[in-house]
Task: structure prediction
Amino acid sequence: MTLKRRENTDADAHPNGVFVRRVLIVLAIAACAALVWILSDIILLVFASVLLAVVLRSVAAFLSKHTGAKGAWALVIAGLAIVTIVAVILTVFGTQLRGQLDTLGSQLQSVEQAVAKYFDIGTMKDFLGKSSLGSLFVRAVSWGTTAIAAVVSLLLVVVGGIYMAANPTPYREGLIALSPPAWHARFRETLDDAGTALQLWLRAQLLAMLIVGVLVGGGAWLLGIPSSIALGLIYGLLEFVPLLGPIVGAIPILLVAAGQSWELALWALGLVVVVQQVEGNVIMPLVSGRAVQLPPAVALFAVVAFGVVFGPLGLVLGYPLAVVADVAIRRLYVREILGERVEIAAEKERQADH
Result:
């Protein structure tokens, strides 16, 4: 009773102290939110490094299982294998691809000028900049043509990804330490599930990028569409952004084909539709199964929302960010806070592997 009375007396004697403390807490939260917003590009690059680390460790695990290489050696072999594959592709197709990309750029510029002149809208950049999505598209094009920024960002992602892949424990445990001690086990399991979901999605997405790129490039070549290799490469790379990427990737194919004839444009449209049906109904279900539980509409609006808020980099990383958010919401909010029973496919997959 004496202790309770003393606490009440202290609170009554310093009523402004409680108010000041609450104000400071609100200001601290606002400052943290502002800092996250200012450093959003860096945070997204960190997440890109995490994705690269997941790829490296997945390849290293595959090599370790089939070759017997362990630990750091498996990681080194995985990195060398990826670099070798990229170098071989650039060596074989580099010169031809560069010429086709230059030709494609000139063709698309001519199409842009013709469309802008026909509709009397000045330039496509001015026309698209009037809406949020159009502004995002313009920013994406501008961001993609800033060579120095792109190279620096890529270098940061690669170096960070290598460090994280070589020794992920300090980064993982450091992130867990930011949560209350009572939640450490829950956060650890959430990170494990998110990592499994990302691993399965990346495996499926990279395979899909390769297959649809080859199918589109080969199909464009058979149809007689100019710059078929460049078109296949662009389409395959944009496949990394599910749902929205293939739509954007189809635009250069249709424009180049329409520049030849409307009949060829219809054939090109049929090619894109067939490839997407194969990707959506055959490739992704076989490789990733049900590990990614995002409904298509939710995934689409999540990708667009991340793009509008964080710019081109948010658009590129929107889907994997949504995958991680989906796992975290299911486990930490729906299951732990609301107490509802919810299925987490990545959790079942991880438990099955063990």
About this structure: The chain has one domain: 40-167+183-353.
